[in-house]
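Folded chain entry
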Amino acid sequence: MLEEVERWLARRSWTAADRPLDQLLAAKRAGGGTVSVVLPALNEEATVGAIVRAIRGELMSEAVPLVDELVVVDSGSTDRTSQVAAAAGARVIHRDAILPRIPALPGKGEVLWRGLFATEGDIVCFIDADLKDFSADFVSGIVGPLLTEPDVDFVKAMYERPLTLSDGSAAPDGTVAPDGSAASDGTASGRTAPGQGGRVTELVARPLLNLHWPQLAGFVQPLGGEYAARRSLLERLPFPVGYGVELGLLVDALHTVGLDALAQVDVGVRKHRHQDSQALGRMAAAIYRTAQLRLTRGHMARGPLMRARLTQFDRGEGGFVPRTSAVDTEERPPMRDIPEYASRRAA
């Protein structure tokens, strides 16, 4: 298995610089396909505008028409995310306005699934809306192999993920100190710890993949929110509604099209706001649950599934107070099974 992973790394790992824009445009013209970019967004007014402007200015101009459609799916922001995104040039759709027949569930995967319905491109590229210092290479880099390699169906971005510290005093999980010395979202000024972001990846996803799906051990950022795929693949896959969506899509893509149809592209450095430790705990539980469901399906495991709730604790005046949250368990069916989608595609 190790040799297979090494061969895959040699064949299916690239950098954004490997495919200049003129090469991508020539391949797009020759193939005749279209590209849609979807940004799932929830209270991202501080960053979404710059991302939209970069994509429109660098990849949707008359000179560089690489991206055909740019959609921001707002999942219920209470700030000015929708207005900022629209002013920057994106088409903004509220999550609940897409497939209104099906009541929306909370979660990132739900937004991505509805974003697939709301777009038309032959290639669909998902980009998180909280990225700072955004580079259009995030889009062109991961779309590139899908335009130039006919046998590649799914591409993940890989990158350095620094964790912001404050005067060297930030806690390992980046949580805020009582004196405010380390911001919980990682935005406090101070030095950074290279490679220390992606804590759920290192503590949960990577061990799970290495143990149960070792073919995927070569993915640098298996949980990264920046990836692109052919619509013909995405419409066949179930979407976990919550934070398990990235792991679920990756594992299901492996079982659907095989390892050699998967790839990754180095796009540099990813800067974004960091979650606090309790949010990371909820994320980890959803990812573990997603993996367990797939193990059950793939290996015919017997016995009950794990308890689909996660209990965490806050310190109150009288001691620790339990707080229990549901773990995302719902999944949407493959988009091709949705009557509205089938009708639209047939038309």
Remarks:
- Confidence is low (pLDDT under 50) at residues 166-189, 299-303.
- Residues 2-161+197-346 form a domain with the Spore Coat Polysaccharide Biosynthesis Protein SpsA; Chain A fold (CATH 3.90.550.10).
